[in-house]
Amino acid sequence: MLNAEQILALAPDAASAKAGSQLATPGKWGGLGISGEAMWGECQGSGKVPYRTQIDLGEPAFKCSCPSRKFPCKHGLGLYLLRAGQPGLFSDGAAPQWVADWLDGRKTRREKKEEKAADQSPEAAAAAAAQARKREDKREQNIAGGLRDLQTWLEDLARDGIASVRERGPGFWEGMAARMADAQAGALGNRLRRASGLCFQSANPDWERQLSAELASLYMLCQAYTGLERLPPALQSDVRALVGWSVAQESVLAEPPVADRWQVLGQYTADEGRVRARTTWLRGLASGRWALLLHYSTGAQGFDVPLLAGTEFDGALCFYPSAWPLRALIRDQADTRPLTGAPPAPGLDATLDDYASALAVHPFLPAYPMLLDGVVPGSAGRATLRTADGRQLSLHSSFRHALHLLALSGGHPLTVFGEWDGACLLPLSVRQGERLYNIDTEFSA
User: Fold this and answer.
1) Biased composition, Low complexity: where in the chain (predicted)?
2) Final residue of a domain: which of 228, 243, 258?
């Protein structure tokens, strides 16, 4: 059973979380019940007929008779929060018919999907594979043409210099980003939009260096994709992923799993147009291995995996193919609980050595996890961290919580976790005493 923080992490937005919390009171509900599969209740709204709310505990999945288009709605969140806070209000027993019908329907749909996959004839499977290859070949042609245009665009920009890019306005970038979307390389379009944002950050004195590094990385990526067959197989997977090719989750989950006690050390959400992406960083307590989880949500739908910074779980992860594997999927997860101990920090020199080793095999690595112990924030809110031996680390220009760090520190050493880009650190969480604070920096594409 999830705790209150994990339940609220399922909310599609802050307004739903607040409204759901307000509904987690006994006076709002009737007919509360729970079985091994589901929980349910009826919430009295403004109309005569109460809203019927039900939760499939296996995923969890939500259904409510209210007209809300958010998922989960405030009633689903309120019901789940009420169960977490006052479990004695829920009577054990068989689900009422309206809940049983919903559960049966979900089970039937799952079985039909599995049967369809299992009963596909060899001829149908071969035809489907041929169609998939045809679509893949067409996309390869589209991407190749788009990358040629992007490479020419970058070469023109290099000749003109980046000093004039602010005068060209956002339309200069949006045109090429749209071209990448047309070429089915939307991931590169998103990177161009983020790069354009650097041009107009008037308070960022480092924007030229950051923009130059990003444009150089994009140019290298174009060249790498053009000569893809000459790269090692693992790096080929990285280049294809950065361009926008996806890997089926089934094939990832077929990889050998890595079992450990996984500690959730940082998390943030980025808005990418209609899609929100949630990045979660884990570290294996025994193996010391880092893992990156990506989850996506569209519209008002919440994230389907309730992970919360400052917790840990026993489980197994499967890693995506990569020259330096970081991205992973959860294969098994059990016994989620608050962190039971401080994660060991390897030290700055060891982390930088690991980062150098990673870049040697994966030169397109966008960010690297960095856990630092015994660092002190710069005084007066300066965007730096000072290590125990007096070295200074610059914080990323997008970081807006330097004073918050200083307040948590009070001038004393902290443990800070964040993403390192080779020049700056973007802090994502801070550990003070026995508590981990997740900063949850918001980004926009």
Assistant:
1) 119-131
2) 243
Nearest Cα neighbor of 213 from 419, 421, 355 is 421
Cα-Cα-Cα-Cα dihedral sign, residues 419, 248, 335, 90:
positive
Residue 426 C-alpha from the chain's centroid: 16
Confidence of residue 119 (pLDDT cuts 50, 70, 90): low
Q: Is 129 within a domain? A: no
Write the pLDDT tens digit of every residue in 349-375.
999 999 999 999 999 998 999 999 999
**124 Cβ neighbours under 8 A, 6+ residues apart:** none
Whether residues 181 and 255 share a domain: the answer is no
**Whether 237 and 255 share a structural domain:** no
- The token duo for 315 is 């489980």
Is there a single domain that holds both residue 326 and residue 268?
yes
Same-domain check for residues 300 and 358 = no
- Does one domain contain both 143 and 58? no
In a domain, 53, yes or no: yes
- In which element (H, E) is residue 288 found? none
Q: Are 184 and 172 in contact (CB under 8 A)?
A: no
Alpha helices in 162-270, H assignment, sequence order: 165-168, 170-182, 186-199, 207-226, 233-243, 249-253
Q: Give me the number of domains the chain comprises.
A: 4
Read off the tokens for 406.
Answer: 């200083």
pLDDT digits (tens, 9 = 90+) for 393-406: 999 888 888 888 88
Sign, CA dihedral 42-43-44-49, equals: negative
Reported as type and span, the H/E element at residue 52 is strand 51-56
Same domain membership, residue 330 and residue 434: no
Q: Is 298 helix (H, G, I), strand (E, B) or coil?
A: strand
Residue 38 in this model has a pLDDT that exceeds 80: yes
Q: Is position 343 within any domain?
A: no
d(CA 33, CA 120): 40
The answer to whether 224 touches 365, Cβ cutoff 8 Å, is no
Q: Which residue has the tokens 């630092």?
A: 372
Domain coverage including residue 293: 249-338
CA–chain centroid gap for 322, Å, is 18
Residue 429 belongs to a domain: yes
The Cα 327–Cα 319 span in angstroms is 6
